[in-house]
Amino acid sequence: MPGNCEATIVLAGDLHARPAGALSVAAAKFASAVLLLAGGKQANARSVLAVMQLGASNGQEVTVRATGPDAREAVDAMIGILAEATRAGD
Amino acid sequence: MAPKVGIVLVSHSAALARGAAELAGQVSGSGVTIGTAGGTEDGRIGTSIDKVQRALALADGGAGVVILPDLGSSVLTVRALLADSDDLPAHVVMADAPFVEGAVAAAVAAAGGGDVQAVLEAAQEARHARKL
């Protein structure tokens, strides 16, 4: 039975191209479907162009929602990248 | 670790091909080989079938290669190579995609372990990506 997991983070910087790439590369390693939601838009985390199109910026809330057998691990990984990458400011 | 799908960027301009490869490499992180075939053999604007062939050989890690052409005769050059050469890596396909967005999307999909079909689809989905 697939699990669901969701977590929200407030970005400490803008979501630039490199972290967007890191999110998509990481999302591809999980069996779960992973969605990113920000500012009323949503993106399949595996699609780097969709993630960049969110235009998520400093101070904005981003919600990670995963559905599947490794939903919790997927959400933890996404939140970790979002926290790390936007703090580093690249 | 399983080999990753390689990418080849074919442009009329060597600088454009190299720049797009640099960007796609940065966004996707390390681990994906991106070959470039930009300009003519003597450094002018144009395309070279021999350059494409060399870039293919470089990018081929055994999992296949997705080729992205920029405009017009880049497509024809790649088509000619794919049609005529009997010395190609297995699973070589050309993507119908915008050059920069397609290169970035393809490289990220390859870095995530996608197969040739998945990388091709990622590149081609870039046709629908809006900037604004």
Describe the fold and architecture.
The complex is a heterodimer of chains A (90) and B (132). With 90 residues, chain A is an alpha+beta fold. Chain A is built from 3 helices and 4 strands. The mean pLDDT of chain B is 95. The N and C termini of chain B lie far apart (38 Å). Chain B has a 4-stranded parallel beta sheet with strand order 2-1-3-4, sandwiched between helices. Chains A and B meet through helix 1 and helix 2 of A and helix 1 and helix 4 of B.
Low-pLDDT segments, ≥5 res of chain A: none
Distance between the termini of chain A: 38 Å
Radius of gyration of chain A: 12 Å
Number of strands of chain B: 4
Give the % helix of chain A: 25-40%
> What is the H-and-E element order of chain A?
EHEEHEH
Largest inter-chain interface? A-B, 17 and 21 residues
Strand order of the largest sheet of chain B: 2-1-3-4
Along the chain, the helix and strand elements of chain B come as EHEHEHEHH
Contiguous uncertain segments of 5+ residues of chain B? none
β-strand number of chain A: 4
Show the helix and strand layout.
The complex is a heterodimer of chains A (90) and B (132).
Chain A: E1 3-10, H1 17-27, E2 33-38, E3 41-44, H2 48-53, E4 61-68, H3 71-88
Chain B: E1 6-11, H1 14-28, E2 34-38, H2 49-59, E3 65-69, H3 73-84, E4 92-94, H4 99-111, H5 116-125
Helix pairs in contact in B: 1-4, 4-5
Name its key features.
heterodimer; A: 90 residues; alpha+beta; four-stranded antiparallel sheet; B: 132 residues; alpha/beta; four-stranded parallel sheet; 5 helices; 4 strands; 14% strand
Short summary:
The complex is a heterodimer of chains A (90) and B (132). With 90 residues, chain A is of the alpha+beta class.
